[in-house]
Structure formats: C-alpha cells, structure tokens
Write a structure and sequence with these properties.
- The complex is a heterodimer of chains A (about 260) and B (about 130).
- By secondary structure, chain A is of the alpha+beta class.
- Chain A has helices at about 5-10, 45-55, 115-125, 150-155, 165-170, 170-175, 185-195, 200-210, 220-225, 235-255; strands at about 10-20, 30-40, 75, 80-85, 95-100, 105-110, 110.
- Chain B has one domain (about 25-130): 3 helical TM bundles of succinate and fumarate reductases, CATH 1.20.1300.
- Chain B contains 6 helices and no strands.
- Classes of the chains: A alpha+beta (about 260), B mainly alpha (about 130).
- Chains A and B meet through α3, α8 and α10 of A and α1, α2 and α5 of B.
- The complex binds iron/sulfur cluster and FE2/S2 (inorganic) cluster.
- FE2/S2 (inorganic) cluster binds near residues 45, 64, 66 and 85 of chain A.
C-alpha cells in the first residue's frame, strides 16, 4: 500500500470528547467537544496534536516517541486505558471519550501525576544487585554479564515494560489502595528476581511479601489485557505469590 | 515511601499469614473444581434420583466410608478446603465493595471457615470413635 493511499483512505470527520481540567480557571473538570478530520492512519495522538495545533492550543497532554516505546501518552479511551500513539480512530465509531488515566491525581487536562507509580517502581530495587562480585580492573575476575539464551528467556517477557502505567489505571486494587505496589512494579521485581546475574531477591522479597505487595492482588487480570507490550503483569504477580509463599516458609524454618 | 525505611521496619510489616490463606485458597479452588462437581453429581443428583445401585450408599456403607481415615480426608477436601476458598473470596469481595475493615473481615471469614471445619472434622472423628 503506498503512503498516498493510506493518507487518503476513508477520510471522514470524527467527534472527540475530551475531559478538560484547567485548575487555574476552575476547580471543576468539564467535557469539551472537538470535530476533526481523520483518515485510516490517524492515531489518537495525531488527533490530539491536530487539536492542539489547529483548534485549541490550551489542551495539555503528554507524548514523546509516538511509537509505543516511551510510555508517556497513556489516556482513557471510552473508559479503557490506552496508549494514544497505538490507538487508531478508525477502530472507533460514534462518540470517542478521552479522559486522563484513572487512579492517578490529575494535574491538568490529560496530564496525571505519576509520582506514586515511580515510588513503587523504585521500592522494588529494579536493578541488578551484586551482579559482579569482582572488584573493578581485577585481572582474575570472572567474565561478567554472561547469560545463556535460556537464562535470558526466563525473564525476557517481563523486561518489556515501558512504564506507561496503563496497568495501574486498569487495576481496581490500586484504585482502592494506592499503597499497593501494583502490576508493573511487582512485575519488574519478578523480572530481576528471575535474572541469573542478580542476587537481590532477598531484599525484594521483603517488599513483595507485604499486604501492599503481591498479597493485595486478587487476580483480576485486566492489567494483562490493557498492557500494550504484552508483558502479562498478572502472571508475574501470581508467580510472585508463589515466590513470596516459599520465602515465608523458608523464613519460618530458619526462625 | 518505603524505599527510605530501614530493613527491620519492612520486616515488621511482613505479611506472614497471607501465604497460608492464599495456600488454603488455592488448594480449596482445586478441590472445588475437581472434586465437588463429581460429589454433587453422585450424592445430590444420581442418589436421590435412584440412579445408583440400591445399596451403593446405604446407611452401613456410607457410615463405614465416612468414619474412616479416607472419610476424614474426603471431608477435608470437599468441605474444609472449599470453605477457606470461599472465605478468601468473601474477604476480598468485601474489601472490593468497601464493606467493613479488612482486619475484622479476615478474622470473621477465616474464623468462620476454621470453626465450620473443626465442626465437620470433629463429627467424623466422633463417628470414628463411637
Ligand atoms: S506492565 Fe504493561 S501496562 Fe503496565 S506499565 Fe508496563 S508496559 Fe505499561
Ligand atoms: S508517545 Fe511514546 S508511547 Fe505513545
């Protein structure tokens, strides 16, 4: 298909309702309607850019990469968390309702405050711990960072997270209790626990085996449905429950 | 912010009971799915309809089966574990609809399941001893 064909295919006018919140003007949020030309290749992010450039420069939203890798363009589309750049208006009929991501404090229009999510990510120590026991420049040191394809395969899927936070908007338990570490943080913990180079599992288990760790999850599974990178956080959290149970048993026997 | 808390404080907040509840919930779920349909089919459908041989579960046979070690295990798998499964679901369901406090719900639900379990297993033991 040539680019020209894509661009001119099925050009039509679509209706977008955007939930606006401008704290400088009013403490209340309100719905604003926009009509805009779209075709088969128009993503929701393209549409928001069109609004900002052509119709209403006061609209605020986040984006950067426009290719589903930076994770900054998450919004609710008809109540479902989606990446704006990976969502195409051709897939929607009728009114399309755009809101900021659920369960996060709204700062302005579609921009939310993700601080608590970042705190939860940091809490699980998402980095290799004691991966290299050798001192720097030690000539007798073993070769570091060696990993077989099988060892890589154990955690690879869980390493694809782009920290978009869609799974937090999908998670009713995070909605009820923001102290819950949540899908992505628990998945990241599991990803490092499964990494053959890592030795930090014990430290992470102390975080995971709390009420606000894996045990707040009730296996709703919506996180895995909305994840744009097929990370399957629900599977990771439930494997984390098995690990936390083992950790507790071991702790009991060791006293 | 948990990342600033020292290790002993984290240790303090460890949920040592949750693995137990979750383990009972999981085991109960398996029993629910695998055993209960068959049990209901035989005891609650086929037997009352008279579709089983007449003395397959007459009084002597049934009490001999029940008041034995296998009978004890049967009650554990068909009554006690599913009770804990249901208790876990109820506790989380109550939290989901914001009813009561989780600490109290936990005691009520698991306590109820434990009480009914002790009662059921106690009946079997009493039958075995008599
Ligand atoms: S697990 Fe998926 S939905 Fe959740 S933050 Fe990572 S990429 Fe986004
Ligand atoms: S703009 Fe980067 S993920 Fe959508």
């Amino acid at each position: 298909m040539s680019t020209e064909q894509v661009n001119t295919n099925n050009t039509s006018t679509k209706h977008l309702s955007v939930k606006r919140y401008l704290p400088d003007n009013s403490a209340e949020s309100y719905w604003q309607e926009y009509e805009l030309p779209v075709d088969d290749s128009t993503s929701l992010l393209d549409a928001l850019n069109h609004i900002k450039e052509q119709l209403d420069s006061t609209l605020s939203y986040r984006w950067s990469c426009r290719m589903a890798i930076c994770g900054s363009c998450g919004v609710m589309v008809n109540g479902i968390p989606k990446l704006g750049c990976k969502t195409f208006l051709r897939d929607y009929e009728g009114d399309i309702r755009i809101e900021p991501l659920s369960h996060f404090p709204v700062q302005r229009d579609l921009v939310v405050d993700m601080a608590i999510f970042l705190e939860h990510l940091a809490a699980v120590k998402p980095y290799l711990i004691d991966d290299n026991p050798a001192k720097p420049y030690d000539p007798t040191a073993p070769e570091t960072y060696q990993q077989s394809p099988e060892q890589l395969a154990r955690y690879k899927q869980f390493a694809n997270c782009i920290n978009c936070g869609l799974c937090y908007s999908a998670c009713p338990q995070f909605g009820l209790n923001p102290e819950f570490l949540g899908p992505a943080a628990l998945t990241l913990a599991h990803r490092y626990n499964l990494d053959s180079r890592d030795h930090g599992k014990k430290q992470r288990m102390a975080e995971l085996n709390r009420h606000e760790g894996v045990w707040s999850c009730t296996f709703v599974g919506f996180c895995s449905k909305v994840c744009p990178k097929n990370v399957d956080p629900a599977a990771a959290v439930n494997q984390g429950k098995v690990e936390a149970a083992k950790h507790t048993l071991i702790a009991l026997f060791k006293g | 912010m948990n990342k600033h808390k020292p290790q002993h404080e984290l240790q303090h907040k460890q949920a040592f009971d949750e693995p137990l509840w979750w383990g009972l919930f999981s085991a109960g779920g398996v029993c629910f799915a695998v055993l209960l349909p068959a049990v209901i089919l035989f005891i609650a459908v086929l037997l009352p309809l008279g579709l089983l041989p007449a003395n397959a579960l007459n009084y002597e046979r049934a009490s001999a089966l029940l008041f034995s070690v296998p009978g004890f295990l049967f009650v554990g798998a068909v009554i006690c574990l599913p009770l804990f499964h249901a208790a876990h679901r109820l506790r989380h369901g109550l939290f989901d609809i914001s009813v009561g406090s989780d600490a109290l719900n936990k005691k009520l639900m698991y306590g109820g399941a434990a009480l009914l379990s002790v009662f059921a297993l106690g009946l079997v033991i009493a039958g075995m001893l008599s």
